[in-house]
Backbone:
């Protein structure tokens, strides 16, 4: 029951005190005195809450200098993501520059071109490009060529990795090529930046782990949200037990467009004479040339990892970088093709339950009372209603995106006194953090907004908007030049890939998949069944 002095705060100030004080103020000055008293009161409450939480708006540790001899980089795969990665590292196609210039002329608040031109040089040279589609290869060469550097087109990745003119590679190919290329690069002593999902099959996840750990290369997986300032601030909140024991996490994907459902454009120049089809297939089933499979490969298990590898991995890694919960003990998945009945194999509606029966973020209740956590992932490619990522703890719930908001739980133990005194209102954010209030984010579609909310487009440094992919590549390059460990290395990539593959395996078999942390193996379902045949 709330006592009579429920409006009293630890500072000794009460709402009743303010009202009583008003009685001594002349009528003409009552309004202004009331406003001043309320401002003082609100300030004291805010200070009390912030002191209790002690959350720091964190920046990542600074990366090292980019000075020195330029690093020689090769790009393998210049499709949608490959072009984005090359641009984030400082090299844009003429077509993109023209589009951004036109956008800035139409809208003076659109700063995407300005931000790109002002970006710090990463001091690299793209000395090689490799793409199986002639048009894309030529486009890549045009983007990375400079007066001082004339890059070479390599017809195969093996030829590129054998070249003494390549120090490091960025791999942005279909998923079924990630591991073979990354393993070969590690064995050749070339540093690797590889896109998610890190691997296509379970066994090659172990093979890649061994290849990287037995080499001296710097290895980074492309989860750029690890550079996002709000996520780093959320890490501080978790470490200070602001939420209490987190028992449930909700993460979601909602997209409702052809592009969001992987119905990518098919280039009019695509043909067997412009695409090396056999090289594209690799270990996939040998089928006749198929333009849709080449450009929309994410829709088939032979080349992609579905919602598990493409989008669940982002949400999983976002939470793993906060909680470090690792690979789940059990995974169950379900779903189907309910919206885009176009011949695809991978589901467009997907639900995953990851269970961590022994995990705890810490507790404010009796020792041993709380233990265990469930991670829920829900996805639809037929609806774009925005659902936030929620970390639900005994004491508070966190909404996490490019900003973060924390609400106290009405039944919290930690905040019980503050709730009773009405210092804290469960319907009002206990803490809200937005790292950037100014500038245009360049979000021009629902799909782009989705990526922005996931921390995948940009973050802020000292109030200025910065491309998070640029920061992630810079971190990788800094580790190559100056030493250190990247934030999403082989350990994090292994956890991401295995967790995603467990979800795919559960979907395909209809079984709950179990992981043994001691043997580091799936114990109840055959490993090789991840990829469809």
Residues:
């Amino acid at each position: 029951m709330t006592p009579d002095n429920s409006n009293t705060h630890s500072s000794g100030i009460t709402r009743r005190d303010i009202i009583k004080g008003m009685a001594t103020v002349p009528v003409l000055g009552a309004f202004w005195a009331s406003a001043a008293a309320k401002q003082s009161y609100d300030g004291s409450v805010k200070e009390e809450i912030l002191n209790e939480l002690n959350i720091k708006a964190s920046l990542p540790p600074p990366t090292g200098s980019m000075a020195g001899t330029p690093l020689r980089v090769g790009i393998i795969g210049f499709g949608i993501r490959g072009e984005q990665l090359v641009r984030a590292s400082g090299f844009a196609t003429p077509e993109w520059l023209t589009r951004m210039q036109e956008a800035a002329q139409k809208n003076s608040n659109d700063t995407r071109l300005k931000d790109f031109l002002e970006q710090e040089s990463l001091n690299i040279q793209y000395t090689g490009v490799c793409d199986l589609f002639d048009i894309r290869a030529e486009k890549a060469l045009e983007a990375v060529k400079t007066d001082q550097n004339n890059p070479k087109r390599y017809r195969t990745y093996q030829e590129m990795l054998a070249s003494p003119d390549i120090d490091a590679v960025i791999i942005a190919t279909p998923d079924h090529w990630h591991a073979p290329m990354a393993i070969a690069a590690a064995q050749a002593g070339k540093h690797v930046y590889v896109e998610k999902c890190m691997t296509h099959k379970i066994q090659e996840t172990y093979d890649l782990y061994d290849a990287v750990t037995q080499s001296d290369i710097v290895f980074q997986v492309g989860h750029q949200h690890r550079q996002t300032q709000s996520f780093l601030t959320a890490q501080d909140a978790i470490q200070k037990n602001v939420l209490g024991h987190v028992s449930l996490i909700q993460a979601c994907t909602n997209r409702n467009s052809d592009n969001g459902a992987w119905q990518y454009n098919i280039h009019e120049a695509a043909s067997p004479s412009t695409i090396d089809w056999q090289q594209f297939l690799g270990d996939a089933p040998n089928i006749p040339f198929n333009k849709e499979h080449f450009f929309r490969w994410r829709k088939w298990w032979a080349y992609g990892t579905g919602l598990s590898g493409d989008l669940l991995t982002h949400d999983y890694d976002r939470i793993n970088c906060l909680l470090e919960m690792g690979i789940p003990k059990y995974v169950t998945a379900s779903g189907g093709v309910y919206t885009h009945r176009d011949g695809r194999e991978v589901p467009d509606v997907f639900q995953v339950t990851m269970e961590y029966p022994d995990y705890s973020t810490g507790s404010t209740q009796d020792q041993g009372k709380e233990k265990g956590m469930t991670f829920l992932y829900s996805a639809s490619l037929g609806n774009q209603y925005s659902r936030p990522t929620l970390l639900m703890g005994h004491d508070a719930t966190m909404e996490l995106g490019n900003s973060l908001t924390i609400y106290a739980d009405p039944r919290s133990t930690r905040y019980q006194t503050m709730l009773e005194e009405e210092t804290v209102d469960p319907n009002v954010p206990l803490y809200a953090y937005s790292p950037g209030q100014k500038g245009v984010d360049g979000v021009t579609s629902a799909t782009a907004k989705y990526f922005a909310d996931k921390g995948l487009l940009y973050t802020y440094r000292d109030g200025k908007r910065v491309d998070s992919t640029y920061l992630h590549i810079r971190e990788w390059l800094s580790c190559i030049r100056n030493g250190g460990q990247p934030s999403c290395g082989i350990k994090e990539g292994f956890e991401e890939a295995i967790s995603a593959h467990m979800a795919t395996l559960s979907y395909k078999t209809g079984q709950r998949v179990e992981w043994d942390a001691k043997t580091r193996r799936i114990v109840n379902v055959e490993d090789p069944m991840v990829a469809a045949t």
In short: The first helix runs from residue 15 to 22.
